[in-house]
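writing this on my phone so excuse typos. first protein, seq and then structure
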Amino acid sequence: MGGPLSRPSVNALAAPLVEALAADAGALRIRVTEVSGARVIDAGASTRGSIEAGRRIAEICMGGLGRVSIVPAGPVRAWPFSVQVHSADPVLACLASQYAGWSLTDKDEGGSFFALGSGPGRAAAGAESLFEELAYRDAASSAVLVLEGADPPPAGIVAKVAAAVGLGPEAVTFIYAPTQSLAGSTQVVARVLEVALHKAHELRFPLDRIVDGIGVAPLSPPAPSFLAAMGRTNDAIIYGGRVQLFVDADDGDARQLAETLPSSASRDHGTPFARVFEKAGGDFYAIDKHLFSPAEVIVTSLRSGASHRGGRIEPGLVEASFA
């Protein structure tokens, strides 16, 4: 089967979504300001924000190549609303855009700043080796970057990002929200498909074989502390997330992916994420990287039509975490 004739621009596709987000700031309870000429949107730090803002931010994160919905029912019955994500181009949407892979640091007299950048701006900068593997670099007249945190980007970060994407700061938009907020928790849970793609990449499954994907995870309630909020959003995916991937592969490869992709393949599986994080001394790199994946996976081979399953939903762990 042939692939697309050309690859889309994730920044160009996201641009109208960003404009709509800014235009609806009042209704979404978010705030639009400016830092060193760049547009900055606070979606939940000094503003209340909203679930709808988080849903829209998730679609921006996916570079306009994904659809995010709040749906009734879902994998965990006790929590009846879920975040559903779908993309017909999951590799670009999730790995070239949504994945939080750009480490941004800045130090000045006012202190230090650190955040992981996600969204289409990553593809314009191409600062990560991942883009060499994807053979993708985006050139557009505007760029947007999403930061998970409570602080706006300082002037140094604005200058660094603008230079990396090759645009003036007036063409760059930053969106930020802490995990503890309504928007922040929603957009993190909306990464349920992205973590599956990232895990497939870690397992060295050929990315060009992943044709389509859909995922769903329970919408986690925000928590006032960062540790609790981070634990809930991760538990929503690790113990309550379900993903189906459609692959151009034979049954053997599809079955192996279904068996190795779920979070149950990790040595750290079975413990609430906040406790895993504390046990690791607050060091993400001390946690088994295979834990960061959905609870249950279905891999459908487009060659045979057969679907292969792996993992399991753990409603008890989700309920304990959310409650």
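second protein below, same order as before
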Amino acid sequence: MSRGDWIAFKMRLHPNRGEEYRRRHDALWPELKDLLKQAGISDYSIFLDEETHTLFAVLRRAPDHRMEDLAGEDVMRRWWAHMAHIMETHPDRSPVTVPLRPMFHLD
């Protein structure tokens, strides 16, 4: 049985907002955490390149994941609104994400 696949993407934080971004994620809403897990997301980490303000995210998603449904969830839209003024976003406040192509993996 497959444990799912890994995906990675990058986002951009506004300058000097790293500590605020960390603070908000340290206090991640329990209902958002539950929603992400219910959507089939696990092993989710986000890293910051402080020189470029680039956030690098990597996560594992289950074979039957429902990531595409997250945008329709109220808690997801509230989180995006909560984060919108500290990072680059689309008009609907979803973060601007750029998918990253896998190049190497060591198991």
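Residues 10 and 102 are 13 Å apart (CA to CA). thats all i got for now
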